[in-house]
Batch of 3 targets.
Target 1
Amino acid sequence: MNKREKAISRNGVSAAATEIQPKWLNSPIIPAVVVALILLPFVNKAFHIDDPLFIWTAQQIQKHPLDFYGFSVNWYVDDKPMYDVTKNPPLASYYIAAIGTFFGYGEIPLHIGFILPAIAVAIGTFYLARHFCSNALAAALIAVVNPVFLVSATTVMCDTMMLAFWVWALFFWIRGIETRRHLFLLLAAICSILCALTKYFGIALIPLVAVYAISQKQRFGRWVFYWLLSIVALALYQWWTFSLYGRGLLSDAFLYPAQFSVLVSQPLLGKVLISPAFAGGCLITALFYSHLLWSQKALFAGIVAMIILVGLLYFFPEFKDTAELGREKFRGDLMVTMGLMIVAGVSLIGLTLDELRKHRDSKTLLIFLWIIGTFVFASFINWAINARSLLPMAPAAGILIASRLEGKHVSRFGLLIPLLPAAAIAIAVVWADYKQANTARTAVGVIHGEFDTSRNNLWFEGHWGFQFYMQNAGCKSLNFNNPKISKGDFIIIPMNNTNIIFPEKELVSLNKTLKFTPCPWLATMNNVCGAGFYYQGWGPVPFLFGRIPPEYYYVFEVSRGREN
């Protein structure tokens, strides 16, 4: 047992900390309230990115509870079965269906419903952190006051819910291993199963908890039975989905990254640069604690490294070309932002490696595998780099930073001061994502007001939230393989969207250009300035401060149709 473990009492709280800090500072209510207060102003956010896929699945579940993917959707070029389009398990959609049944599928009830998993993450991280450090409050706040967590919590996708089951599974597992109580191990197994059935990345819990148990017990024991429950449950899910759709959706999800990565391939140099930039930007709190975590020499080295990197990006275009970062997007603000985020990301990874070097115990090994495993998956295994794939690192990063801050000659309130600029940036990123999502809903309202949708002659390209609102307005998604357009029809194309193919000039003429202003100084998804929070193809950083261009929607009138 090392010094840190000796400082932790049986219930996970340092005796010294309990004596000197007020009771209210040792409560999970604080991070829970912080999360709720930040998220509540955004409950009317328009559905965004992949939100519609989860909502449509929920509506299918409401009609056919045991056939969750038994419908088709035009999400990639033409109509495809839903099990071909989405690569997530259905548990989050069952949750949406429950909310929708009682309160409807509007933005406000669904977003309020998804604040609950976010609060569960905050509380779970607090209790989990008590097994690792004496300042669980700092750990929980450092974890949740990050752009990746707060933005993810304003969606109705599966990521935050998966993370809630993840942290509680680890909490119950550690308690079960340490106390040898069956109830905790059973609760851990249940949370692990629910985690994997919310998002497939949750399967990573299975080897993670096994390594922790082995490193703690040095032998196989009663925990193996509960560990096997997760494997049996996933095997049953594989069998069930195979019987429903002719393929096991679990194995299908494992094959998807290899199949899709061919289409979005990135050179190794590009991944080596983009992945730490995403990690550093998504987990921005690490940047503001760096002056407490590293020596002055290390901080100076980081600044020099950032200057060198920005210089390479600025003076050597072939460097950007080799990494395929998109030379046309690289303005000065993007170069500096990327350099700063890369240094922050490398700092977090370096901190993780250094912690394992200093503390060779089971808890340190757990945090190490949690952070490095998530980072490697998001950077080199997943179909593309995106913020959502890095979200599972947030609680581990909070616990790691809080653990490293122990012993520093800083007051407890002083340890929380770096959260203020981090929170300001994180809330600004949430605001920018909120504004961008709302432009799609606003655009559809304008289009619906200016065009007669009852004539069934309004087609559109693009997907995400725009598709959700366009279809609700009575418009039709254009099927590229069977475009049933006629003379006099209109095609609406959003420029900052996915799966866009401009029609032949001979077939259409530009009727109108609609312009909407999102947040003018910060972007999360903009393929012109280089911000790619949800997908690296839009840009090499998850968000960008700078001059953000408007959102354009082009309305084309079909001058010569294809009668089918």
Target 2
Amino acid sequence: MNLLTLLALSVTAQETQSQIRIVVHPEAAEVEVDGTTQLRAEVYDSAGVLMQDPEVRWFAVDGDLVSVDAQGLVTALSPGQARVVVGMPGQGFTTARITVPQLPPVELSLSIADATIKRGASAQLDAGVKTRLGHEISAPISYASSRRDIATVDGSGRVFALAEGRTIVSATAGDATGELEIRVVRNRASSYRISEPSGSIRTGDVVRLAVEGVASNGDIVSGFSPAWSVGGSGATVETDGSAGVFVAERPGTYRITALVGENAVASTNVTVEQREILGELVTVGRGPVSEHHTGDTWVFEGVDGRDYAYIGTYEYDWMKVWDVTDPANPVLTDSVQLDARRINDVKVHPNGRIAIVTREGASDRRNGIVILDLGNPAHPSILSEYTEAITGGVHNVWISGENNLVYACHNGTSELVIIDIADPSNPHEVGRWGLDRTGKTLHDVIVQDGYAYLSYWNDGVIMLDVGAGSHGGTPTEPTFVSQFKYAIGSTHTAWRYGRYLFVGDELYPPNWDLDRPVEARGYIHVVDYSDIENPAEVARYEVPEAGAHNVWIEDDLLYVGYYQGGLRVVDISGELRGDLYAQGREIAALITTDENTVVPNWPMTWGAQVHKGHIFSWDLNSGIWVARYDRPELVP
């Protein structure tokens, strides 16, 4: 049983009446890697009497950090802050905190972009420190040079070249050491300057700057890797190779400085204008639902040439069918009833002939997916279902139309299950992939250009080759490409657009209740996947007072269902760096609520989809909203 299941079984008891009380001893413990500690649970009944030999279940939330057996024996696997849950399904639970201290460094590697440095210039060392588990860690590092007359190294690892010759630079972290030979060569430059950016610069525009040397005869000398800085607040400049990457959040004039060498500095001024908000978001129509919570939605053109929006439901057993051919006047044409407590996801095959809906909470506990026949899209009918390998429920799916495959996120095993739907009346499993560890939670999947991106909650995003061929994967036999994870986790969704992957968090407060206002949090991480094996976060989009949910991207615009923050539209043209919200790249918002909703005047915008020039957004509390964004052409 995973954590989500345990919490779901416990939530009713926690919110209504406390049937039992569970106490864990110790509540917190520190355990070295490979060490163990014994946890013990005391369970008191509703009268406060200690129960004898209660049947409790133990679960490690952070299964990559610790494991726990059926008797509560915890084994530390990897450094970090871990949680162990003990509970009785349907009755209650409690949590113990386990701290696994960091291991000491055992390996230190040194590298530099170019081990040849011009006299009078400088370059930055890159030091990587690892533990015996192969984990890279941050640790204090001391540096030294064997020939201080040739070059010196400061405390940050920057090498300053003083005279022509060779030296060995070394680094030490604990008992780990590393060294690298540096060669200092002749420098023809007698002065330095920063390349001037061309054109006007707006907040949020990324400007790449470079330093060039000028010889006494006027020749240009290249090959310098300075340390960059910017004066004042409101802007940042980062080092990327030899370039300085500048971006401003506020308008103004900024002084940018490049430290070329110990006694060599270049500087320039950059003037930034306020980014102008162009266009407006106009509400066009509504498909209101106020009697129950709604789920995910898919908008498409049916085989009859009309447009439809299929919307799932939350804690309800109907999928709603809306005719949205006239976006200003959506018409409810039908509903499809399923044995489910939640119809979370709806996807339509690109051929428009079948749809996939997911089921959770079926009365017979056989959930899986249901395939709908869309021969008459205004009145879809159940064609078949597949439950055999995914009885534990499916939260999200993706349809690969060209391969007639469904990629399903199975709640029970948190594996990606691949289902062949070439014959939609006879679906069957043809493959699967999952992280090789306990305590994992697979939430979402999207497939783009032969790669699958799996939102694996605390484990971040897993990128798989499912036919791109770069790593030997096929549509039914995925292969691992890379993993991107961050400290807090809660990786909920992802969408690839160009070089970037837009990764969304989902953070709910304790004791949340969807029938009341929910203060969700979480934001969009912008991750550069130019090197798919080494993705790196470069920017973020965070609405401080709200929480991110699902995304859609089209024509350089990012559409985010930002829960209580409504629908947000963000300009993502050009290169992205830094805080997109602070830079003014948000260009429109629509608050999807009114007084006639499940939770009056409280938006919980789920997501959006662009279809035939209109933005279809849906809200957990109020159904479908249709808008149009009128804008001039964006220029990167």
Target 3
Amino acid sequence: MHLPALVEDYLDDYGKVREFYNGDFREPSAFERQTERVRSRQIARGDLAAILSEQNGSYGCGPETLGAIGRLVRDEACVVVTGQQVGLFSGPLYTIYKALTAIKLADSLNRRGLGSFVPVFWLASDDHDLAEIDHIALIDKDNRIREIRCAAPSRESKAPVSNVPLPPDIGDCLGQLADSTLDTEFKADILGSLSEAYRPGRSYAEAFGRWMTRLFKSRGLVLIDAGHPRLKEMGRDVFYREIADGSPSTRQAVTASERLRQAGYEPQIPLHEGILNQFYVERERRAIQWKDGAFDIKGLPAPVAKETLLGLAKDKPSLFSPNVLLRPLYQDAVLPTVAYVGGPSEIAYFGQLKGVYEAFELPMPVIYPRKSVTIVERKIDHILKKYHLSVPDLWRNAAGAIGDIAKDEIPEAVGQALLLARDHLERDYAGLKAEVLAFDPGLAGSVDLAKGKMNQQLDFMQKKVQQAARKRNDIAIQQLRKAVDNLYPNRRLQERVFNIVPYLIKYGSGFIDQLDRAIDIDGTDHQLLVM
């Protein structure tokens, strides 16, 4: 499993990358320092709690979530944040692992006595890449990798997904999911809850929020829809400063990128001078270019004066949306963030952001690695043990592992025994024929006929062995391909391809509890969970 050098050192040798981050996630003192910085900030906690209560209430949250929101005001709680694009039916498995890591980290910090901490999941609803989120993949009941896609007519649009409604044929996607999975005692309940969340006409963001609330209802996870107009008002200073100071985010990130290259690392985020790291949003997200104090908004006929754009950022911040570089700044402007739970790509791009946070006078959070997991179902574990393979063997060379085991030939020991039998037949019949001819030369034909029949029997036996070998190897190939498809689908980690719903159909809602109990967030190694 290959990781960028920057991420490998972040996980295993933090001293090499310390200058690019704001605290070692292994050190309790890093969380203590960040908690103090966050609590010294002025955040409109009452307004924030009101927005979160409204959003999470609309998703059908439980008392645990409302209690967590209340602690933001009552206890001046800080937050552990994670987030993801609002993928169909919750998207890839790592979305679930992100949420569980954030929940478990917040629980851990609460037990350390540093104060009160709340897990928050940031719905990246401002994103416009519908092709990234409109599908899921699973192993169907015929043991084949299958994709279910819910492409809308506006798939090529640049509209934020918060504005994209689920199409009428979302029911067809649910039907495909039902047809692709085996019937179980849990299936009706899971698909019923899923269809309740994913109704035609709802936005991807709202459906995602309702489904995630269903999955984590008892765990106090707070969801936040980044596209809410009142959140944009709370974060307007980020949009304003990006315009007023001529993209300080780009300048600082460029400097960090140069230092990363000097240290032997490749920056994660490509940077473009003269383009703001935020979009102008009117139905669609439009890039903003700037030069000599004037701004060109892609798709609009005339340039916009700086003063005009600043006025919009101040009075109508909902017209702006951050890109990947500025999104964390917007997030941490509106939330009291102590830690952010991120995957490898996010760990890498935060390495470009320390100076950006300083330029915007915001405390950069501690970056905590989300748990990385491969689920090994027992039937798949049995196949691995049968052929003396490990999951890393499949990661390294899946085709080679299959080829080494499944060879369409007679096993060596059986082949040697057949050759030995033919050799003995030749030698023994030579002596037998000599004795018979000495006794009666007229029996030569009978001796040759008997020998021929015995050779025919050996040929027949060899043919049967070859057929058995091919059948056995066909079974081995089928089983090994099944294991590869389950554990390393399309030569990618399982967590990046498959969706949680088929596992819930198979094992019930308690599957989330199993994951919660089994996942160890204190270790950074990829974890194998045999279920």
